[in-house]
Amino acid sequence: MIAKELLDKLDSCLGSIVPEENHLGIDETRGLFYAQMITPNKSKPLVWLSALFYGERPALNEDQINALDTTAAAVHEAYNDLFVANQLNFPFNFDQIDEAMAESAYGWCQGFYIGLLIDEEFWFGKKTEKLRPTDHDLLAVRNSAKLFLCMITNDFSSFDKAKTAELKKLIIEQGQEPNDDMLAASLFPNVPIAVKTLQIYGTKVMLGNAAKAAAPTSPIKLGRNDPCHCGSGKKFKKCCGAV
Questions:
Q1: For 114-128, 193-207, 210-224, which range has the lowest pLDDT when averaged over its residues?
Q2: Dmax over Cα atoms in the chain, in whole Å?
Q3: pLDDT digit string, tens, across residues 132-169
């Protein structure tokens, strides 16, 4: 659990720079940093610092830069410590959710979605991407990421058509109009499993990348008639290969 003091300090710092409506709130900030932690291709600080201002980072004076860098870095480090310790968990218990928690969780989802968009291609795939029915893991990842897109933007154009039809049917059976708002609301209970799906996948990719980076590289073998690697211009067999 991230210390409330750290988040309050960052929120106060952001509020001293721009009006409240021009920067992420505390719940949105929590979602943003969570997404940043589970994304393998870590973005540079300038990117996620700009995301705190909805991507429109204002001109800052030296004092504001120093204050923002210090407070944001402290929150980032705290989240990173949780992730490294395998203690980064979805912060809401949907089994005991009430109106206040639902509002807080929705704000978190908004920030989480903004965080996913920082590496949009990794989470949502290329526009030309075509997955096969057998690509179960990646299909689950794409649908989980698009769940946040649909829920935050009410845009269901790229969402799984069969799942959308199923949701509409359930809403109609409940005697309600299956409009976009109702569709988005019906996705909300699936947030915890969607986050878990994305976190497992992101962590798996990170571990795979780390293993590749740690693997020893094979030495380059020169043929005896190849130019010598020392740059002498001679053939390998008549230079270093002759030793």
A1: 210-224
A2: 87
A3: 888 889 999 999 999 999 999 998 888 888 888 988 89
Report residue 142 as tokens: 């794409």
Task: Give how far Cα 160 sits from Cα of 33, 201, 235, Å.
Answer: 27, 19, 60
CB 43, CB 119: distance < 8 Å? yes
Query: For residues 19 and 222, which has the higher predicted lDDT (pLDDT)?
Result: 19
Calpha distance 91→33 (Å, rounded): 12
Q: Which residues contact 136 (CB under 8 A, 6 or more apart)?
A: none
- Tell me how far CA of residue 240 lies from CA of 32, 128, 173, 200, 225, in angstroms: 55, 50, 81, 50, 12
Q: What is the Cβ-side half-sphere exposure of residue 50, based on CA atoms within 13 angstroms?
A: 11
The pair of three-digit structure tokens given for residue 110, joined into one six-digit string: 């908004």
- Quote the DSSP letter at residue 85: T
Q: Is 226 helix (H, G, I), strand (E, B) or coil?
A: coil
Mean pLDDT of the chain: 88
Task: Quickly list DSSP for 133-182.
Answer: TT-HHHHHHHHHHHHHHHHHH---TTS-HHHHHHHHHHHHHTT----HHH
Would you state the structure tokens that stand for residue 196, as one six-digit string?
């878990």
Please tell me the least confidently modeled range out of 146-150, 193-197, 220-224: 220-224
pLDDT at 243 over 50: no
According to DSSP, the residues that pair with 227 across neighbouring strands are: 235
